[in-house]
Specification:
This protein is α+β, with helices and mostly antiparallel strands. It has a domain of 105 residues: Rieske [2Fe-2S] iron-sulphur domain (Rieske Iron-sulfur Protein, 3-layer Sandwich), CATH 2.102.10.10. It contains three helices and nine strands; from the N terminus they run αβαβαβββββββ. The strands form two sheets. Strands 1-9-8-4-3-2 form a six-stranded antiparallel sheet. β5 and β6 form a beta hairpin. Bound molecules: FE2/S2 (inorganic) cluster. FE2/S2 (inorganic) cluster binds next to loops.
């Protein structure tokens, strides 16, 4: 008759091992999940409406503003409309880490309140934990000289500008 190389610890020992592994994982989760002093993340943002959204800005009006002007449309479709030296662009306000809504830009910096990810004014990551840039959306005029329309269903390259 063959005997196991080591005695079978039995179900009680297995339960202890599982308990120890579970306790270790829980401890690691608690230790790592706090986000470096940031509060636990609030529920993720509601997904922005998916499609064309009409803003209250016009191309001429926004191009007449200084570089770095930001229009906050988080209440309309969770995006920003921004004017820089080369034109106008729209960018999501949804953090690429876990989907929280980022804060309004302060200077040239955008910060997520959930875990502290930071982005520059073009959406590029400057600080994690997010590792992907903020997505840009297509911007058009509803009609010549009319209000700007941001299509949140149509992403574009981060270099795309309406000029
Ligand atoms: S959701 Fe985690 S940093 Fe924004």
């Amino acid at each position: 008759m063959l005997e196991p190389a080591t005695p079978d610890p039995g179900p009680a020992a297995m339960d202890r091992r599982c308990f120890c592994a579970s306790a270790l994982l829980t401890g690691l989760t608690l230790a790592c999940g706090g986000g470096g002093g940031y509060p636990a993340p609030p529920p993720t943002s509601a997904p922005p409406p998916n499609g064309p959204l009409t803003t209250s800005d016009t191309k001429a009006g926004l191009l007449a503003t200084p570089d770095g002007t930001v229009r906050d449309y988080r209440n309309l479709g969770n995006f920003f409309l921004i004017r820089d030296a080369t034109g106008i662009y729209a960018m999501t306000a949804v953090c690429t880490h876990m989907g929280c809504t980022v804060g309004a830009p302060v200077g040239a910096q955008i910060t997520c309140p959930c875990h502290g990810s930071q982005y520059d004014l073009n959406g590029g990551n400057t600080l994690g934990p997010a590792i992907h840039p903020l997505v840009h959306f297509q911007v058009t005029e509803a009609s010549a000289g009319g209000p700007l329309v941001v299509n949140t269903a149509q992403t574009v390259a981060a270099s795309t500008r309406l000029a």
